[in-house]
Amino acid sequence: MTVAALEGVTCSRGGREVLRGATLHIDAGERVALVGPNGAGKTTLLRALLGLEEVSQGKVTRCARGAGYVPQTVGESLFPWFSLRRNVAMPRLLAHRDDAADVATRLCARLLPEVAPDRRAGDLSGGEQQAAALARALASVGDIVVADEPFSALAADARSRAVSVVRDELRGRALLLVTHARGDATELCERVLRVDGGTVIEEGRDGA
Amino acid sequence: MTERRRWMGSVAAVAIAVASWQAVATIRVADKPLLATPWETVAALPAASRAIVADLLATTVRAGLGLAMGIAIGVTAGLIAAVGLRRAPALEGMLDFARSVPPVVVFPVFLLAFGYSETARVATIAAGCAWPMALSVTTAAAAKRSVRREILALSGATRLEALLWTQPWEALPALTVGLHASASTAVVVAVVTEMIVGVDRGIGGRVVSAQIASDTTMLTLSILAIGIVGYAVNVALRRLAVWAEQFA
Description:
The complex is a heterodimer of chains A (208) and B (248). Chain A has 7 helices and 9 strands; from the N terminus they run E-E-E-H-E-E-H-H-H-H-E-H-E-H-E-E. Chain A has 208 residues and is an alpha/beta fold. Chain A has a 6-stranded mixed sheet with strand order 5-6-7-3-8-9, with helices on both faces. In chain A, strands 2-1-4 form a 3-stranded antiparallel sheet, with helices on one face. In chain B, helix 2 crosses helix 5 (118-141), helix 2 (38-84) crosses helix 8 and helix 2 packs across helix 10. Chain B is built from 10 helices and 2 strands, in the order H-E-E-H-H-H-H-H-H-H-H-H. The longest helix of chain B has 47 residues, at 38-84. In chain B, 80% of the residues lie in helices and 2% in strands. By secondary structure, chain B is mainly alpha-helical. Chain A binds chain B through residues 50, 52, 63, 65-67, 69, 71, 73, 76-81, 90-91, 94-95, 122, 136, 140, 142, and chain B through 146-148, 150-152, 154-157, 161, 165-166, 169, 246-247.
């Protein structure tokens, strides 16, 4: 079953075509990585799948409601006036899940073991904010987690911890990961796709 | 620059200001001084302080009442404008026009409506405060779609839930700017309305009385007192703006 798909999607910004007939299918539980140079269209592709970009051509099967999302600008995505725990619990609170606090506490302990969950999100460092955004995406209730360079601001130890937590906490959900680090792509994902010039090129399927 | 040099620089700045004040106080127009000297002012302070404090208090209460009313009217008008802005973009220009009308020129309108009364003064202050507040509310409400809103939408938040999770905090910086402009306007308009039509109590009225009686000492003390109130309002609101910036 496909959880999100693009069929021949074209997307322009400022008169420039960022995506040119891009096609991508993500099946339930599948883990897909997008790699490619800066400006290749990776982020636009991911945002188009989430329904956050207007497309001029092609068909988009959007991720269903409840998708977890780690944007590139994690600092702007957190709610600095709330605690770390409340930020992480947000998707489950909005879905009226009784386990919101428990799941948030568990994810905070796993991804940010040195940070008190009651600390205000606005006081977190850049790396901590990124880990918090990742925790929030993993706390989501949808069938896919979409993450745009979710490890880029993390120190080496926090990065390996985060990779391991993502693997554990996906719990059968699909993953679409944008990364510059091939190691993260191959470690976490079974399909690695290269995005270049606004199109998607299949690179490898290692069945990991 | 060392701490000592900065301290000495501050002392020098104060000394230059006092010397300039002394120089202005020696100017005579038709053999009359314009201001009291710094020493005369300090010497008169103990005797005049009670009356000045009472007048300042009356002005502050008047300005505060007008400001509170202006905020209530401004927030309501701003919210209505924010809702209607998409359908009628001219609303923003209309608000900007209303803000550009100097508040004291509508004082005669309120005098006609309410007579020579406290109500006319407070209404004029409220009218002056309402428009900057209304504009800041429309600015806050029209803030472009943020990443937080995208996350909330993806998480299935309703419009009301998205509003409650973001708007009260995201709007704070713009609202603080509006509050700053409104509070400064309230002090100025309160003093000017007191000067135009005499009042029993109020620092504006005291300034005019001192000028009529050629009481330069009281005139100087009153000007200084108004300056202190304006300065205190600015400092407090600047701190509020710094605090609100964390939500920008």
